[in-house]
Amino acid sequence: MNGNTVFDQSSTTNVDVDKAVSDFLSKIKTLEVSQGNKIIIHQDGVERSYYIRCCLLGKTATPIIDLNARLIPESTDSFRANRELLLKHKTFQRMSQDAASGREFNDIIVEYNTSYSPEKPLKVWGGQHRSRAIQIASDKEISRYHGFRVYFCLTKEQRSALALVSNTNINVSNDLFDRQLEETLIGPHLRKWCERVGLLSQGQDFPDAGSRAERVTTQAGRTFIVNFFLGKKRGAKLTAEQLDRNFYEPYLCQSGVLDEQYSTIVTSHDGSLWNDKGLEEAGKAFAELDKAQSEAIRKSKINRKGFRTKALTLSVLPAWAYVAGLLQAHPVRLKNHLALPKTAKNAPDPLNALEMSRYKHDEDPPTYRGLGNRSSMQDRQRMAQLFLARSLDSEANFERKLLDRAVSTVRGLKSLSKGYTS
Amino acid sequence: MTVSYQELIQDAQWFYDQAESAQQSSPNQARFSTASILFSFMALESFINNMMSDFTELPSGLLTPHEQGFLAERAVELADSGKNAGKFEVTNRRWYQSLEYKIMFLVARFSGDTVDKGSNLWQKFQQMKDIRDLLTHPRKGAAKVILPVDAGEAIGVAKDIIQLVSQKVWGKKVQF
């Protein structure tokens, strides 16, 4: 320990941490040091990570704050872990006005890390908007003392936990958690795969709030992968005749956690998954479908977001991927499934979103919002049957008759499994 | 545009409400009550026929030709020529089934259970169906004064039979 720092009584002394804190204090001017006060080093009881509390002037913090913190510092592939800044949001505008009027902020969570972008060593994990407001105020020559919690020598796991914990007291979607967990625990493979097949454009990341975006989320990407392999496993055991005599249960990956099924599939393939030719072909065909659907709706009279993103719905996407996997051993039907559905007067867009939204079976409650709108198991089963039915005929499109037939079939098959055996 | 069984039940309810508020023993009271009973049975027939249609979409080989014929309400005959010669096959000839047979078949075939024909519900269903048959196949000497209470009974029976079949075959209740 040097003369400026001391570990609190609940903390274990750590030489590396002490060195890092001293390095920080020698380079960055804090209120505490300028007043001759000691800096206490704390250790988090849960994650065992080390941090200090200190105050920095706005003008000191402004040039050294990094809003693009990385979960894996050594990887240039590691995309932004935090959510997008909502600079037009009223709350931010108010925050910014307050900062410019002299408001002091507290408990901004940062990591002191010089291993990347060393000119900006304070990597912000909690309080991005406050940090940005401080920067804007500083540009207007308003500089007050703000409270920071500065972490040192974080491990990958500690950093990931910090990113999650720092975001739990604000309205952050599960999509952001998913993105963070994916990058930390699995790596950039899923994002790169989505880029390669066209579900994400080059350099694009999964959205931090899927409800606002019109592209695939981390959860949807994982769900696609899992269903392809679940379908492939099942399809390999079925003869051509047996394919249509079953109903299927496409899987939906959980959001907000690292889904167990996804984790198992990724681990069991030991890296080969990301180069699977069948999966890649399916991914590309699905990206084409998503694009064609979006374009068709943009040109139509009813240009609704829900219709544009129909392919990405969490009943359509898992069912499509499951059937793509299921038909791997049945090449003729696979070809039909992967081909873009033809459009016609009775099906003006590839997925015929309007007709699907009008669909209702007798078993559905009055509040049912149509086929492929929800992510329930029932909707996933129906969509799988629908894609399977279309794969029988290369000319088929999603006209009403096909919807009726597919839903009746899945309903009939489910009931048949309970009845007597003839 | 097909009308759902829920809408038909709502229509039955509307006519029942009209019958209830019409002057007692007036022609309007009988008219509204009659319409209500007919709508109740339309709802029930719609629900049962749609359920039958679901099963006609099953892939071949899962049901016998006789079951397929029953569900499609088509006659089944022994083919005497062609590739199916000597086998039973479903023809295009209409072969209508009664409502109670359809209900009994659906429950027995697709739930592994049977309809309790001694139950109160089944007895009431038979009574209301007799009234409906009188209305749809009128004949001399068989007239009956139709009252709002009959209409109310018909709505109740239609709903209860729909729920019975739904629970047996689909394993869940439906919402009206």
Short recap of the structure:
With 422 residues, chain A is α/β, with parallel strands linked by helices. In chain A, 45% of the residues lie in helices and 9% in strands.
Q: With helices defined by DSSP (H or I, 4 residues minimum), what is the helix count of chain B? A: 6
Taken together, the total number of domains of chain B comes to 1
Per DSSP E runs of 2 or more residues, the count of β-strands of chain B stands at: 2
The percent range for strand residues of chain B is: 5-15%
Helical coverage of chain B, percent range? 55-70%
Q: How are the strands of the biggest sheet of chain A laid out side by side?
A: 1-2-3-7-5-6-4
C-alpha-based Rg of chain A, rounded? 26 Å
Uncertain stretches of 5 or more adjacent residues of chain B: none
N- and C-termini, Cα separation of chain A: 83 Å
Q: Give helix and strand order of chain B, one letter per element, not per position.
A: HHHEEHHH
Shape of chain B: elongated
Mean pLDDT of chain A: 90
Biggest sheet layout of chain B: 2 strands, antiparallel
Question: Unreliable segments of chain A (pLDDT under 50, ≥5 consecutive)?
Answer: none
Which series of helices and strands of chain A comes N to C? EHHEEHEHEEHEHHHHHHHHHHHHH
Question: What radius of gyration of chain B results from the CA coordinates?
Answer: 19 Å
Please state how the strands of the largest beta sheet of chain B are arranged side by side. 1-2
Count of runs of 4 or more consecutive helical residues of chain A: 18
> What kind of sheet is the major sheet of chain A?
7 strands, mixed
Structural class of chain A: alpha/beta
